[in-house]
Here is the input.
Amino acid sequence: MYVICYGKSPKALEAGGKLIKDIGGRYITGTELLTGSFVIAEGETKCAIVMILPLEAAIRAMGETVTDKTRDLPVIAVSPEGHYAAIIKRGNSVYEQGTDEVYAAVLKSMGPFCFSEFESKSEITSDLTKLISKYNMAVNSEAVLDKVNAAINSGEKINVYTDLPIVFADPVIDPMTYSLHSYPYDLRDEFIKQYKATKNDKNVPSVFITCTYLGDEEDDTNLILVPKLLSLGIEIKVKTDPGYCRPAIRQSLINHLLNPMSVAKVAATYSARESEMVTGIAEELGAEVISYDAEQIANANAPMSMTFNPEKKNDTATALAFLASSEGSIVIRRATSAKGLVFSAAMNRDNIILPE
Here is the structure.
């Protein structure tokens, strides 16, 4: 553990000397702070800059002295008299996990009369309740949700992993609570590996916001939120068995690594919208049925060639999925089975706003 102390007054020098003696570290000059020319031991991750200044001066100094070298370091403000200590910037990258430990060591060194905060860290931003409601998300565990929301409301920082387009509602405040880790859709395998690795960490709950199928094993460690972003386009074949289609389409989605709970709409032609097959699939997936007429289907500007079959003039299943998803990304194109089930799937492109 190492503290990099900055301050000039006699009281600041005294307070800094005590911190250096108790924790380890050194004083630096204003020039060293401004240029980032001080040395940090290789591999030291429990490290922080300690501004021993009045709070306003500490914040101002931090804003004027950030360099490439100091940008990742946490910054702790300590009053020259040692009456308070506060984290004014958490560490990034490798230093983030050590921020709280360094802060705890600073408080211990300053003694029992050092205020650790002026007010609660709670309610910096919203918890996940409104987000789940707006996007009609399926929740894997209400108990884990309660645990995560309690952590957010108490001021803890939560890791959020996603392979969907997510942006912060407030890019200044929200990153203080949510540490967002985004994976492109074509790196979905890496996203799944991250989930499996995180699942073994029983100490820190993480949040996964995804339409990817992560398995059906019970997970009492992580919170998995599945938004309904997927639309299916269904083609009816004369010999298709409705009883076969319900479980078959669920398994086909899983085979394509898509969570069946992510399906929002099942699209069909007007003539087929009340068929036993379409209504049965919608019921199986908890989705609504939506329909389009022949002209809308013919004019759908779905990407790629409309079919893999050169004798077929259009691809009804893909056109239906494309329309129902508001011209989203095609993620399954004409999945078929020996018993005549044909469907395509498209995902809505709209950003999810975190935390909402």
The chain has three domains: 2-110, 129-227, 230-347. The longest helix spans residues 10-23. The radius of gyration is 27 Å. The chain has a mean pLDDT of 87.
